[in-house]
Amino acid sequence: MTARTNKTGKASTTASALADPVREASEPSSLLARFGSERALTMDCGAVLDQWQIAYQTYGVLNAARSNAVLVCHALTGDQHVANRNPVTGKPGWWEVLIGPGKPIDTEQVFVICSNVVGGCLGSTGPASVNPMTGKAYGLDFPLLTIRDMVRAQAHLIDHLGIDSLFAVIGGSMGGMQVLQWASSYPERVFAAMPLATGARHSAQNIAFHEVGRQAVMADPDWRGGRYLDGNTRPAKGLSVARMGAHITYLSEAALHRKFGRNLQDREARTFSFDADFQVESYLRHQGSSFVERFDANCYLYLTRAMDYFDLAADHGGSLARAFAGSKTRFCVASFTSDWLFPTPDSRAIVHALNASGASVSFVELESDKGHDAFLLDEPQLFATLRGFIGSAARARGLYGSGTGGRP
Amino acid sequence: MSDVRIDLSLIADMVEKGSRVLDVGCGDGELLALLAARRNVDARGIELSREGVAGCVARGLSVIQGDADTDLGDYPDDAFDYVILSQTIQATRAPRLVLENMLRIGRRAIVSFPNFGHWSIRAQIALRGQMPVTGQLPDSWYDTPNIHFCTIRDFVQLCDKIGAVTERAVALNAAGSDIGVKAPWWFWNLFGQQAVFLLKRSV
């Protein structure tokens, strides 16, 4: 097991060149923890990875007591670059509105860790990584993985960093699933948990959307049964269509209407063709094509599958309350009114189970017309709630010194 | 803590130290914060308004956004030592069901409510022929959230009907002082501006 310091790291944020995503899959511009057989990753499907790695970023300083670590779990197409320029896209970190100096997750007070999930394509071992047995990308030889496998891998990373218990675990959507799994698998290691815009299981409708996306990828002849990297092709059309479909589910009818309405794209009138006449079509096409440039198609298949398989209650004899039995963790659950991917009843089911298990839980449904993606956006109500929750949890944990702290 | 509302202070005195408490309709968390500070309770709350929940969470209280009418059914039996409904029962759609749920999920229930039998309210209806508007109940009939007013006598009847046993009852007059326990019910019902009941199940 070795840890490598960040080669490009902060200095690279000024560089204009974008990193090659294929290279990032095995040689990421991130901190890297490599594990061998002494820290093999045993997966739910029965497979064991005895040479694997996890790519991660950190922000802020771990205190002497090692008690101020916050683990951020990313969503389906997110990555570890939560609060720095993304080396592949050149864009700001995906949650910079929430994380940074003076922000609700204040990196002057807490030590933030964000890792690429196992199965991902930005440096943690996954389908796009080189299989040490063959010297080629794993592709479909990679074992099918679960949310619990992702969390097991993160627990290895936290051990590796010498952290016994996390101050907080936070994430939205698939990240929220990981938060719930953390709280259930390692209750004594999680002081506070913030599962946002998520559910304790994937609904039939969500599995259905994912299946459409996967079929789009697999229908692309360039997918080549998953071995496209060998032939240096990419199933760009299929993955792009998958992304277009999925992207609609992240928004809301109101948000699409407000943004685009029926406006035409750079033209005065309909063209009577299948061109992208409407702005919304042009927008979706752009979302699809830019996604293909940064994301691996096989990883998309694996990660969507992991979400589909997630059903925390099923792992506990059908009782979600049992998944949190005896939990001392304090929870803050939030949903958004216009989120139809993980609607409020999904969050209420979590809250119901936490109440039934006697856990400490706060819950708020936030008003927003921005759909599922609202958790990633500048939502003052969300920030106010998280600031309050984190501040009071920090005081309970004895963080933020002896002052009032927490910038309530 | 000297400026604490008298009814909240009274409720706090009814709660045993270190117990588990659910405050239904907890507002901005004033009572829960008082109970946490004064009685060292494990304080939980349910509140309808987003602003209220956000304020409570910022105070470090565990509060969920929800509704007494719909969400109490989700809690398991005997989940709490006390379930409190402070100045809220008159705003619920199904007060009887709410009270039954409170007695199911809590070993004790504490209910405080404005007494619609108070003489000043009776006088407004009797003499002016209008729905009463008082300092304690300032809303007009058309914009009040209070849809199920009751008198102390009505409330006692409901308790009898659902098999709730009154362990302690206090009526407060307009000046906020306790009407002595020796006073008869009719006196309470006429001069009590608000009442606080500590209830338990009969079996």
Question: Would you mind describing this structure in some detail?
Answer:
The complex is a heterodimer of chains A (408) and B (203). Chain A has two domains: 2-204 and 315-397, Alpha/Beta hydrolase fold, catalytic domain (Rossmann fold, 3-Layer(aba) Sandwich); 206-305, Orthogonal Bundle (Rna Polymerase Sigma Factor, Chain: A), CATH 1.10.1740.110. Chain A is built from eleven helices and 13 strands. Chain A has helices at residues 21-24, 147-160, 174-185, 204-219, 236-250, 253-259, 279-294, 297-309, 320-323, 344-356, 380-397; strands at residues 2-4, 31-35, 41-42, 48-49, 52-59, 69-73, 99-100, 105-106, 111-115, 166-172, 190-196, 330-336, 360-366. Chain B has 203 residues and is of the alpha/beta class. Chain B has a single domain (6-201), classed as Vaccinia Virus protein VP39 (Rossmann fold), CATH 3.40.50. In chain B, 34% of the residues lie in helices and 24% in strands. Chain B has eight helices and seven strands; from the N terminus they run αβαβαβαβαβααβαβ. Chain B has helices spanning 6-14, 30-39, 50-58, 68-71, 95-105, 119-128, 152-161, 185-191; strands at residues 20-24, 42-47, 62-65, 80-86, 106-114, 164-172, 194-201. In chain B, strands 3-2-1-4-5-7-6 form a seven-stranded mixed β-sheet, sandwiched between helices. In chain B, helix 1 packs across helix 2. Chain B is globular and about 45 Å long. The N and C termini of chain B lie far apart (37 Å). The mean pLDDT of chain B is 92. The A-B interface holds A 330, 332-333, 351-352, 355-356, 358, 360-367, 381, 384-385, 387-389, 391-393, 395-396, 408 and B 42, 44, 50, 53-66, 74-76, 79.
